[in-house]
Protein backbone atom coordinates (compact mmCIF):
# COMPACT_ATOMS: atom_id res chain seq x y z
CA UNK A 1 0.00 0.00 0.00
CA UNK A 2 1.40 3.42 -0.87
CA UNK A 3 1.98 5.85 1.96
CA UNK A 4 -0.50 8.31 0.42
CA UNK A 5 -3.31 5.80 0.99
CA UNK A 6 -2.54 5.27 4.68
CA UNK A 7 -5.06 6.59 7.17
CA UNK A 8 -3.86 8.82 10.00
CA UNK A 9 -5.23 9.15 13.52
CA UNK A 10 -5.97 12.50 15.14
CA UNK A 11 -2.69 12.11 17.06
CA UNK A 12 -0.47 11.65 13.99
CA UNK A 13 1.41 14.97 14.22
CA UNK A 14 1.91 14.49 17.95
CA UNK A 15 3.46 11.02 17.43
CA UNK A 16 5.89 12.47 14.89
CA UNK A 17 6.81 15.32 17.25
CA UNK A 18 7.69 12.64 19.85
CA UNK A 19 10.01 10.95 17.35
CA UNK A 20 7.85 7.86 16.86
CA UNK A 21 8.91 5.21 14.38
CA UNK A 22 5.76 4.77 12.28
CA UNK A 23 4.50 1.65 10.51
CA UNK A 24 1.64 0.60 8.24
CA UNK A 25 -0.79 -1.39 10.37
CA UNK A 26 -4.03 -2.50 8.71
CA UNK A 27 -3.95 0.56 6.44
CA UNK A 28 -3.21 3.00 9.26
CA UNK A 29 0.06 4.85 9.85
CA UNK A 30 0.66 3.93 13.50
CA UNK A 31 3.50 4.38 16.01
CA UNK A 32 5.56 1.19 16.30
CA UNK A 33 7.79 2.56 19.07
CA UNK A 34 9.05 5.90 20.36
CA UNK A 35 12.38 4.68 21.71
CA UNK A 36 13.20 1.26 23.17
CA UNK A 37 10.29 -1.18 22.93
CA UNK A 38 11.74 -3.04 25.95
CA UNK A 39 11.61 0.18 28.00
CA UNK A 40 8.04 0.83 26.85
CA UNK A 41 7.05 -2.74 27.74
CA UNK A 42 8.66 -2.49 31.18
CA UNK A 43 6.97 0.86 31.83
CA UNK A 44 3.53 -0.73 31.31
CA UNK A 45 4.38 -3.67 33.57
CA UNK A 46 5.80 -1.51 36.38
CA UNK A 47 4.40 2.02 35.93
CA UNK A 48 2.17 3.11 33.04
CA UNK A 49 2.05 3.46 29.26
CA UNK A 50 -0.02 5.61 26.93
CA UNK A 51 -1.28 4.16 23.64
CA UNK A 52 -3.07 5.52 20.56
CA UNK A 53 -5.52 2.80 19.51
CA UNK A 54 -7.61 4.97 17.19
CA UNK A 55 -7.21 2.40 14.40
CA UNK A 56 -9.70 0.08 16.14
CA UNK A 57 -13.12 -0.16 14.46
CA UNK A 58 -16.15 1.14 16.34
CA UNK A 59 -19.59 0.09 15.11
CA UNK A 60 -22.75 1.32 16.86
CA UNK A 61 -25.89 -0.83 16.92
CA UNK A 62 -29.09 0.86 18.06
CA UNK A 63 -32.84 0.25 18.04
CA UNK A 64 -35.55 -1.81 19.74
CA UNK A 65 -34.07 -5.07 18.42
CA UNK A 66 -30.37 -4.19 18.81
CA UNK A 67 -29.87 -6.94 21.41
CA UNK A 68 -31.75 -9.51 19.30
CA UNK A 69 -29.65 -8.63 16.24
CA UNK A 70 -26.37 -9.01 18.15
CA UNK A 71 -27.52 -12.29 19.71
CA UNK A 72 -28.18 -13.57 16.18
CA UNK A 73 -25.03 -12.10 14.60
CA UNK A 74 -22.49 -12.99 17.33
CA UNK A 75 -21.81 -16.18 19.29
CA UNK A 76 -22.19 -14.59 22.75
CA UNK A 77 -25.21 -13.83 24.92
CA UNK A 78 -25.23 -10.08 24.27
CA UNK A 79 -28.80 -9.48 25.44
CA UNK A 80 -27.66 -10.64 28.88
CA UNK A 81 -25.03 -7.89 29.18
CA UNK A 82 -26.14 -5.17 31.60
CA UNK A 83 -25.93 -1.49 30.64
CA UNK A 84 -22.50 -0.15 31.47
CA UNK A 85 -20.81 -3.54 31.05
CA UNK A 86 -18.79 -5.08 28.22
CA UNK A 87 -18.28 -8.60 26.91
CA UNK A 88 -15.56 -10.34 24.93
CA UNK A 89 -17.13 -12.31 22.07
CA UNK A 90 -16.65 -13.40 18.47
CA UNK A 91 -18.39 -13.12 15.12
CA UNK A 92 -18.26 -16.34 13.11
CA UNK A 93 -19.13 -17.48 9.61
CA UNK A 94 -21.89 -19.99 8.92
CA UNK A 95 -19.18 -22.72 8.90
CA UNK A 96 -18.00 -21.67 12.38
CA UNK A 97 -14.79 -19.98 11.21
CA UNK A 98 -13.85 -16.88 13.24
CA UNK A 99 -14.29 -13.60 11.36
CA UNK A 100 -13.06 -11.55 14.33
CA UNK A 101 -12.92 -11.35 18.09
CA UNK A 102 -14.73 -8.35 19.51
CA UNK A 103 -15.56 -6.37 22.60
CA UNK A 104 -19.21 -5.30 22.82
CA UNK A 105 -20.18 -2.49 25.20
CA UNK A 106 -23.80 -2.01 26.20
CA UNK A 107 -24.05 1.77 26.41
CA UNK A 108 -27.79 1.94 27.07
CA UNK A 109 -30.86 -0.29 26.92
CA UNK A 110 -31.04 -0.19 23.11
CA UNK A 111 -27.52 1.00 22.24
CA UNK A 112 -24.35 -1.05 21.85
CA UNK A 113 -20.84 -0.33 20.63
CA UNK A 114 -19.01 -3.17 18.89
CA UNK A 115 -15.22 -2.75 18.77
CA UNK A 116 -13.52 -4.74 16.01
CA UNK A 117 -9.86 -5.21 15.15
CA UNK A 118 -8.57 -2.65 12.64
CA UNK A 119 -7.79 -5.30 10.01
CA UNK A 120 -11.32 -6.74 10.22
CA UNK A 121 -13.45 -3.65 10.84
CA UNK A 122 -14.90 -3.54 7.32
CA UNK A 123 -15.58 -7.29 7.31
CA UNK A 124 -17.38 -7.05 10.65
CA UNK A 125 -19.36 -3.99 9.55
CA UNK A 126 -20.44 -5.69 6.33
CA UNK A 127 -21.45 -8.87 8.20
CA UNK A 128 -23.49 -6.94 10.79
CA UNK A 129 -25.25 -4.90 8.09
CA UNK A 130 -26.11 -8.09 6.18
CA UNK A 131 -27.28 -9.90 9.34
CA UNK A 132 -29.42 -6.91 10.39
CA UNK A 133 -31.99 -7.70 7.65
CA UNK A 134 -35.37 -8.24 9.30
CA UNK A 135 -34.37 -6.70 12.62
CA UNK A 136 -35.64 -3.33 13.88
CA UNK A 137 -32.09 -2.10 14.46
CA UNK A 138 -29.56 0.20 12.83
CA UNK A 139 -25.89 -0.61 12.26
CA UNK A 140 -23.73 2.51 12.02
CA UNK A 141 -20.10 2.81 10.99
CA UNK A 142 -18.59 4.98 13.74
CA UNK A 143 -14.92 4.43 12.93
CA UNK A 144 -14.41 8.14 12.22
CA UNK A 145 -16.47 9.24 15.25
CA UNK A 146 -13.92 8.13 17.84
CA UNK A 147 -10.31 8.43 18.81
CA UNK A 148 -9.23 5.75 21.29
CA UNK A 149 -6.51 6.38 23.87
CA UNK A 150 -5.45 3.72 26.38
CA UNK A 151 -3.56 4.22 29.64
CA UNK A 152 -2.32 0.87 30.93
CA UNK A 153 -0.27 -0.27 33.92
CA UNK A 154 -0.33 -0.24 37.73
CA UNK A 155 -0.13 3.57 37.94
CA UNK A 156 -3.00 4.10 35.47
CA UNK A 157 -5.84 4.32 38.05
CA UNK A 158 -4.02 7.08 39.92
CA UNK A 159 -3.18 8.97 36.74
CA UNK A 160 -6.78 8.86 35.52
CA UNK A 161 -8.24 9.64 38.96
CA UNK A 162 -6.33 12.93 38.97
CA UNK A 163 -8.20 13.99 35.79
CA UNK A 164 -11.76 12.79 36.40
CA UNK A 165 -14.40 12.64 39.11
CA UNK A 166 -15.85 9.47 37.59
CA UNK A 167 -16.13 6.56 40.04
CA UNK A 168 -13.07 4.58 38.95
CA UNK A 169 -13.06 2.48 42.13
CA UNK A 170 -16.55 1.28 41.28
CA UNK A 171 -15.65 0.62 37.63
CA UNK A 172 -15.11 -3.12 37.30
CA UNK A 173 -12.99 -4.88 34.69
CA UNK A 174 -14.98 -5.06 31.42
CA UNK A 175 -17.23 -2.16 32.36
CA UNK A 176 -17.59 1.30 30.86
CA UNK A 177 -19.18 4.56 31.95
CA UNK A 178 -19.59 7.99 30.43
CA UNK A 179 -17.56 10.67 32.15
CA UNK A 180 -15.30 13.63 31.70
CA UNK A 181 -11.51 13.29 31.64
CA UNK A 182 -9.50 16.53 31.76
CA UNK A 183 -12.63 18.36 30.64
CA UNK A 184 -13.14 16.05 27.66
CA UNK A 185 -16.32 13.93 27.38
CA UNK A 186 -15.31 10.27 27.18
CA UNK A 187 -16.53 6.72 27.46
CA UNK A 188 -14.22 5.36 30.17
CA UNK A 189 -13.77 1.59 29.85
CA UNK A 190 -11.77 -0.64 32.18
CA UNK A 191 -10.43 -2.80 29.39
CA UNK A 192 -7.08 -3.40 27.74
CA UNK A 193 -4.81 -5.75 25.85
CA UNK A 194 -1.71 -5.76 28.04
CA UNK A 195 -2.42 -8.02 31.01
CA UNK A 196 -2.33 -4.98 33.32
CA UNK A 197 -5.00 -2.88 34.94
CA UNK A 198 -5.88 0.03 32.72
CA UNK A 199 -8.43 2.08 30.86
CA UNK A 200 -9.48 2.75 27.28
CA UNK A 201 -10.91 6.20 26.61
CA UNK A 202 -13.22 6.71 23.63
CA UNK A 203 -13.39 10.41 22.70
CA UNK A 204 -14.16 12.59 19.71
CA UNK A 205 -11.12 12.90 17.42
CA UNK A 206 -10.97 16.66 17.92
CA UNK A 207 -10.36 16.10 21.66
CA UNK A 208 -7.61 13.48 21.25
CA UNK A 209 -4.54 15.76 21.39
CA UNK A 210 -5.86 17.68 24.40
CA UNK A 211 -6.56 14.42 26.27
CA UNK A 212 -3.20 12.84 25.36
CA UNK A 213 -1.35 15.92 26.61
CA UNK A 214 -3.35 16.02 29.86
CA UNK A 215 -2.63 12.34 30.53
CA UNK A 216 1.06 12.90 29.73
CA UNK A 217 1.27 15.75 32.28
CA UNK A 218 -0.66 13.77 34.89
CA UNK A 219 1.72 10.81 34.48
CA UNK A 220 5.00 12.74 34.54
CA UNK A 221 5.70 12.08 38.21
CA UNK A 222 5.02 8.33 38.05
CA UNK A 223 6.94 7.33 34.93
CA UNK A 224 4.20 7.23 32.26
CA UNK A 225 5.66 6.89 28.76
CA UNK A 226 4.12 6.87 25.25
CA UNK A 227 3.99 3.33 23.87
CA UNK A 228 3.76 1.90 20.37
CA UNK A 229 2.22 -1.20 18.83
CA UNK A 230 5.45 -3.19 19.18
CA UNK A 231 5.33 -3.39 22.98
CA UNK A 232 1.56 -3.85 22.88
CA UNK A 233 2.25 -7.07 21.00
CA UNK A 234 4.81 -8.39 23.52
CA UNK A 235 2.54 -7.38 26.42
CA UNK A 236 -0.46 -9.26 24.99
CA UNK A 237 1.75 -12.24 24.14
CA UNK A 238 2.99 -12.52 27.74
CA UNK A 239 -0.62 -12.22 28.90
CA UNK A 240 -1.63 -15.10 26.57
CA UNK A 241 -4.12 -12.95 24.67
CA UNK A 242 -4.93 -14.06 21.11
CA UNK A 243 -4.28 -11.84 18.08
CA UNK A 244 -6.46 -12.17 14.99
CA UNK A 245 -4.44 -13.45 12.04
CA UNK A 246 -2.16 -15.34 14.44
CA UNK A 247 -4.08 -17.35 17.06
CA UNK A 248 -7.49 -16.71 15.43
CA UNK A 249 -8.61 -17.02 11.79
CA UNK A 250 -11.46 -18.14 9.55
CA UNK A 251 -9.77 -21.57 9.41
CA UNK A 252 -10.40 -22.01 13.15
CA UNK A 253 -13.57 -22.19 15.23
CA UNK A 254 -13.63 -20.82 18.79
CA UNK A 255 -13.34 -24.46 19.96
CA UNK A 256 -10.18 -24.98 17.91
CA UNK A 257 -8.76 -21.87 19.60
CA UNK A 258 -9.56 -23.12 23.09
CA UNK A 259 -12.15 -20.36 23.45
CA UNK A 260 -15.32 -22.41 23.17
CA UNK A 261 -16.53 -20.76 26.38
CA UNK A 262 -17.46 -17.62 24.38
CA UNK A 263 -20.07 -19.61 22.40
CA UNK A 264 -23.40 -19.51 24.28
CA UNK A 265 -25.63 -22.29 22.96
CA UNK A 266 -28.08 -21.71 25.83
CA UNK A 267 -29.18 -18.27 24.55
CA UNK A 268 -32.61 -17.93 22.95
CA UNK A 269 -33.00 -18.29 19.21
CA UNK A 270 -30.71 -19.15 16.37
CA UNK A 271 -27.35 -17.51 15.67
CA UNK A 272 -25.01 -17.55 12.69
CA UNK A 273 -22.81 -20.64 12.82
CA UNK A 274 -24.79 -22.46 15.55
CA UNK A 275 -24.97 -25.84 13.77
CA UNK A 276 -21.32 -25.86 12.70
CA UNK A 277 -20.20 -24.76 16.16
CA UNK A 278 -22.31 -27.47 17.83
CA UNK A 279 -20.49 -30.04 15.67
CA UNK A 280 -17.13 -28.42 16.51
CA UNK A 281 -17.96 -28.65 20.23
CA UNK A 282 -18.73 -32.38 19.91
CA UNK A 283 -15.58 -33.06 17.89
CA UNK A 284 -13.48 -31.22 20.49
CA UNK A 285 -14.80 -33.61 23.14
CA UNK A 286 -14.23 -36.76 21.04
CA UNK A 287 -10.86 -35.84 19.58
CA UNK A 288 -9.25 -32.73 21.02
CA UNK A 289 -7.97 -30.44 18.28
CA UNK A 290 -4.49 -29.00 18.44
CA UNK A 291 -4.17 -27.08 21.68
CA UNK A 292 -2.87 -23.53 22.10
CA UNK A 293 0.08 -23.68 24.49
CA UNK A 294 2.92 -21.52 25.68
CA UNK A 295 6.53 -22.30 24.77
CA UNK A 296 9.54 -20.93 26.66
CA UNK A 297 12.97 -21.12 25.04
CA UNK A 298 15.92 -22.77 26.72
CA UNK A 299 18.24 -20.84 24.38
CA UNK A 300 18.25 -17.33 22.92
CA UNK A 301 16.84 -17.83 19.43
CA UNK A 302 13.44 -16.26 18.84
CA UNK A 303 10.62 -18.28 17.23
CA UNK A 304 8.33 -16.54 14.77
CA UNK A 305 4.80 -17.15 13.47
CA UNK A 306 4.70 -20.06 11.04
CA UNK A 307 7.74 -21.92 12.42
CA UNK A 308 7.16 -25.66 12.91
CA UNK A 309 6.98 -27.20 16.39
CA UNK A 310 8.67 -30.62 16.44
CA UNK A 311 9.06 -33.66 18.68
CA UNK A 312 10.79 -36.93 17.93
CA UNK A 313 11.54 -35.80 14.39
CA UNK A 314 7.85 -35.18 13.64
CA UNK A 315 6.03 -31.88 13.12
CA UNK A 316 3.50 -31.63 15.96
CA UNK A 317 2.36 -28.03 15.61
CA UNK A 318 3.02 -24.48 14.51
CA UNK A 319 4.06 -21.27 16.20
CA UNK A 320 1.40 -18.52 15.96
CA UNK A 321 3.24 -15.69 17.79
CA UNK A 322 6.78 -15.41 19.12
CA UNK A 323 9.01 -12.72 20.61
CA UNK A 324 11.63 -12.06 23.27
CA UNK A 325 9.82 -11.66 26.62
CA UNK A 326 11.14 -8.66 28.56
CA UNK A 327 9.42 -9.91 31.73
CA UNK A 328 10.73 -13.52 31.56
CA UNK A 329 14.06 -12.59 29.98
CA UNK A 330 13.70 -15.42 27.44
CA UNK A 331 12.10 -15.92 24.01
CA UNK A 332 8.50 -17.13 24.24
CA UNK A 333 5.86 -18.28 21.79
CA UNK A 334 2.26 -19.34 21.51
CA UNK A 335 1.71 -22.39 19.33
CA UNK A 336 -0.98 -24.88 18.37
CA UNK A 337 0.36 -28.38 19.12
CA UNK A 338 -1.08 -31.89 19.01
CA UNK A 339 -2.95 -32.71 22.22
CA UNK A 340 -0.44 -35.48 23.07
CA UNK A 341 2.28 -32.83 23.50
CA UNK A 342 0.20 -30.10 25.09
CA UNK A 343 0.60 -30.84 28.80
CA UNK A 344 2.76 -28.33 30.70
CA UNK A 345 6.21 -29.79 31.30
CA UNK A 346 6.11 -32.03 28.21
CA UNK A 347 9.73 -32.73 27.31
CA UNK A 348 11.42 -33.23 23.94
CA UNK A 349 9.58 -30.39 22.22
CA UNK A 350 11.46 -28.01 19.95
CA UNK A 351 10.94 -25.30 17.36
CA UNK A 352 12.49 -25.59 13.91
CA UNK A 353 14.36 -22.30 13.57
CA UNK A 354 15.95 -22.30 10.11
CA UNK A 355 16.75 -26.00 10.18
CA UNK A 356 17.94 -26.14 13.79
CA UNK A 357 15.63 -27.75 16.37
CA UNK A 358 15.82 -25.42 19.37
CA UNK A 359 14.58 -26.89 22.70
CA UNK A 360 11.46 -25.38 24.27
CA UNK A 361 9.51 -26.03 27.45
CA UNK A 362 5.72 -26.38 27.15
CA UNK A 363 3.96 -24.18 29.72
CA UNK A 364 0.38 -23.23 30.55
CA UNK A 365 -0.86 -19.86 29.32
CA UNK A 366 -0.59 -17.05 30.24
CA UNK A 367 3.14 -16.56 30.69
CA UNK A 368 2.46 -13.57 32.93
CA UNK A 369 -0.39 -12.84 35.34
CA UNK A 370 -0.42 -9.59 37.27
CA UNK A 371 -0.69 -9.62 41.05
CA UNK A 372 -4.15 -8.38 42.02
From TrEMBL:
GO terms for cellular component: cytosol; glycine cleavage complex. The keyword Transferase applies. One of its GO terms (molecular function) is transaminase activity. It comes from the Bacteria. The glycine cleavage system catalyzes the degradation of glycine. Belongs to the GcvT family. This is Aminomethyltransferase. It comes from Streptomyces phaeofaciens. The gene is gcvT.
Amino acid sequence: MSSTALRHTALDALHRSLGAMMTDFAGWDMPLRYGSERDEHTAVRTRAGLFDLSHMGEITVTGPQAAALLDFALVGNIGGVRSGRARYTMICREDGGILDDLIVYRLADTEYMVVANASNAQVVLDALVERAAGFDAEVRDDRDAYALIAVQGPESPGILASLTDADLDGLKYYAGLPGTVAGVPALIARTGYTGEDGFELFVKPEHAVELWQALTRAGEGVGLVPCGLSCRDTLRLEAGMPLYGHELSTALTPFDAGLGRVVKFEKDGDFVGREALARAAEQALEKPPRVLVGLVAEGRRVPRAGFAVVAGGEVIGEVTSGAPSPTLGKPIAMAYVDAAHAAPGTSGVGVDIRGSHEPYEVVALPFYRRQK
